[in-house]
Amino acid sequence: MVDRADINSVLSQLREVRSQIKGDESPLEKLNSSERLNQEVDKVQAQSANFPNIKTDPNVPDFQTMFGNAINTVNEQQMHSSSLSKRFERGDPQVDLPEVMIASQKASVSFEAMKEVRNKLVDAYKDIMNMPV
Questions:
Q1: Which of 13, 29, 52, 68 lies 20 to 30 angstroms, CA to CA, from 87?
Q2: Residue 131 and residue 85: Cα distance in Å, rounded?
Q3: 10: closest CA among 121, 133, 123?
Q4: How far apart are CA 10 and CA 102, in angstroms?
Q5: How far does the chain reach from its first CA to its final CA, in angstroms?
Q6: If phi over 0 gives left and psi between -120 and 50 gives alpha, with beta otherwise, what is residue 91?
Q7: Could you tell me the residue ranges of all domains in the chain?
Q8: What are phi and psi of 74, to 5 degrees?
Q9: How many CB atoms lie within 10 A of CB 103?
Q10: pLDDT tens figures, 82-127
């Protein structure tokens, strides 16, 4: 369920950021533009009150949990690959070369995929931060 307090806090933060922005506008233009922004924020708040409460599935984890699990999985694969490599180097007869190579490739591919996801998140963050308010 979406919390109305979260929406209101985001909108109030938008107001604060807008009021802190300094430009080449005259004081009268600044007042008019901030009033317009406040009016728009008020409209959004009024419209958001009309939306039905959105119910989320409690079985679906949030993004932070999913990303943390993905990082832990990549870490486990790298540790398993490293362990197999060390066992093979020591001459463990239960570990054969194809098993070591497959584990190494799995760890490498999963790390590269995680790195790409991280890069996309950083790009998205930069795009959001460069958006005009």
A1: 68
A2: 47
A3: 133
A4: 47
A5: 27
A6: left
A7: 4-48, 63-129
A8: -60, -40
A9: 20
A10: 999 999 999 999 999 999 999 999 999 999 999 999 999 999 989 9
- Using CA atoms, how far residue 3 sits from 56, 57, 59, in Å, is 12, 15, 19
Q: CA-CA distances (angstroms) from residue 74 to 70, 103, 114? A: 6, 12, 8
pLDDT tens digits for range 42-87 = 776 666 666 666 566 777 777 788 888 899 999 999 999 999 999 9
Contacting residues for 54 by C-beta, under 8 A, at least 6 apart: 1, 2
Query: Are the beta carbons of 25 and 33 closer than 8 angstroms?
Result: yes
Alpha helix positions (H), 1-133: 4-20, 27-48, 63-89, 97-129
Amino acid occupying residue 3: D
Residues contacting residue 1 through CB under 8 Å, at least 6 positions apart: 53, 54, 55, 56
- pTM of the predicted protein model: 0.53
